[in-house]
Amino acid sequence: SKCPPTSPATCRQNPRWGAANTALVRWLPAEYEDGESEPKGWNPERLHNGFQLPPARTVSREIMTSASKWKDDSYSQLLVDWGQYISHDITLTPQSTSTDGSDVDCLKTCENVHPCFPIKMNDGLQGCMPFFRSTSDCFVNFQSGIRQALQRQQLNAMTSFIDASAVYGHNQKLESFLRDLPGRNGKLAVNARFKDPKGRPYLPFVTKLPSACHQDLQGERVECFSAGDNRVSEGLPLTSLHTLWLREHNRIAEALKHINGHWSPEMIYQETRKIIGALHQIITLRDYAPKIIGPESFKHYIGPYRGYDPSVDPSIANVFAAAAFRFGHATISPILCRLNESFQEDERFPHLRLHNTLFSPWRIVKEGQCTHMRMETNNTSLVLDTLKQMDLAALNLQRGRDHGLPGKILAESQICHSNAIRLSSSYQSDSNHSTPCLKKQTKKTHIICPSLCQQTVFLTSASSIGSCSNKVKEVLVDNYMVHGPVH
Ligand code: HEM
After folding, report:
1. For residue 243, what pLDDT is reported?
2. Is 170 annotated as a binding residue?
3. Alpha-carbon span 334 to 354, nearest angstrom
């Protein structure tokens, strides 16, 4: 084809569709308190359907908690990890900084002043949890009605396609930084300081030092890693997956060079990248998605790939990034298991509580990677307990309000008709043991928290993704367009 290999997107009819740094699309118009940009809850006194909106923290503590613990032996921890990893390939909603035309420090203030929308800690803890509003898009959509055209929209900084942009980056500067250009071998750059005991490479460190990652108090510093997505050091399984892809790229590049001695470094890099992108698509569509929405829903709503359709806008939907795909937060285990060769707890490096795994890449370098991962217990409330300063459920709720997600967007809406959808067995058991809110709603409509959680969608069950899967299908299926069909 005539497409320049470095920017295949330019060959598409609508090159902006699904491109990095374009607006998240809306399925329904946003609902803001002032109609245009202020989130619900901005003025706490304001009534919604005759009631004050409960603070996100209250909803998080009173509704999003569960006393029960359960075991899920059907799938490994990797199902959760892949979800997080692939969500980072397709969504990153950039947040405003305190310097966006304001003197307020969002890390300190407890007031709602743009761009800060702090979460009040009204449960004995002092102060507020900082919250930066998502950056707004400047683009005005004149094709919509005037009211909608003026509404605040949010951005997706990543490409919407499953294209391994978490490995290669989503702009040329980052892409070049991540490549081993001097090596002239089509490979990715590796860490210059550390290797694993078997000589296998780690990801390179970030350039801005010292980085913010936690450190082992003894010995050398281990900085945050860099990869195509800047959240790479957020957790150990996530970092492990990024590391695996770095190694896989370099392994395939070497093999291709071996059998195609005449190929240029650029050719090796681009061909390897295509293979890695295709592997991301295969794993997501063949192995991941059917387990999440259930094989029947997958067959019904997604089915086999039928070819590239240029009329479909594959951009990630606002409700997908800010709500639906965050269902994964309810599947996070409070404990990260570190097992030995016999699948027993490793004596030297025992299991870790979740908060000890965050932003701690030193553990990968000094304690080794989690080669054996297995799902143990799962409990939403522990997410809250372990992440005291990062109440993920409250953040999700607040983010939904920040984005003006319509409260009932998933319920009885034009989009999702979920009654027909059956949960996959593993997620059925999840919902049986989950929050009262979740239970009640899944029984009735298979949709989590439309009204109970007060106008804000926090989680959607696997089934509601299934029910929205025409849209999901568009998003997923269109990912083939860059690399062509995958068998
Ligand atoms: C230990 C595991 C995880 C941690 C600590 C974590 C943490 C976070 C945090 C802090 C945010 C930003 C919240 C905000 O300010 O709005 C976020 C966003 C998000 N998370 Fe997770 N997450 C984890 C696992 C997962 C999983 C398993 C999934 C899906 C299966 C997932 C999907 C998402 C999505 C889609 C977003 C929105 C991304 C964006 O558009 O910026 N996460 N997560």
Report:
1. 97
2. no
3. 5
DSSP string for residues in 188-223? BP--SS-B-TTS-B-PPBPSSSS-SS---SSSS--P
> CA–CA separation, 222 vs 246, rounded Å?
18
State the residue for tokens 């980056």. 169
Element (H, E) at 6: none
Say how many Å lie between the CA of residue 88 and the centre of ligand 1. 8
Select from 482, 471, 484, 387 the least CA-distant residue to 5. Answer: 482
* pLDDT of res. 382: 34
Among this protein's residues, is 483 annotated catalytic?
Answer: no
- Can you tell me the mean pLDDT for 298-324? 91
Q: Which helix or strand (DSSP H or E) is residue 42 part of?
A: none
Quickly count: other Cβ atoms within 10 Å of residue 473's Cβ: 16
Dihedral of the CA atoms 214, 220, 222, 223 (nearest 10)?
A: 90
pLDDT, tens only, 57-67: 888 887 765 43
* CB distance 392 to ligand 1 below 6 Å: yes
Q: Is the pLDDT reported for residue 7 higher than 80?
A: no
134 lines ligand 1 (CB under 6 A): no
Helix (H, G, I), strand (E, B) or coil at 334: coil
Task: Using the mean position of ligand 1's atoms as its centre, give its distance from the Cα of residue 445 in Å.
Answer: 25
Decide the pairing of beta strands 47-48 and 51-52: antiparallel
Tell which atom from ligand 1 comes closest to the C-alpha of 396.
16
Please report, as a single letter, which amino acid is at residue 241: L
pTM score over 0.90: no
State the distance from the centre of ligand 1 to the C-alpha of 425, rounded, in angstroms. Answer: 23
DSSP 47-96: EETTEEPPPHHHHHHHTS-----EE--SS-THHHHHHHHHHHHH----B-
Inter-residue contact 232 to 188 (CB < 8 Å): no
For the chain, domains (ranges, CATH) are 21-94+134-483 (1.10.640.10)
In this model, does residue 310 exceed pLDDT 60?
yes
User: Which residue has its alpha carbon closest to ligand 1 atom 24?
Assistant: 84
CA distance 257 to 61: 55
Report the range out of 374-388, 398-412, 450-464 with the highest average pLDDT: 398-412
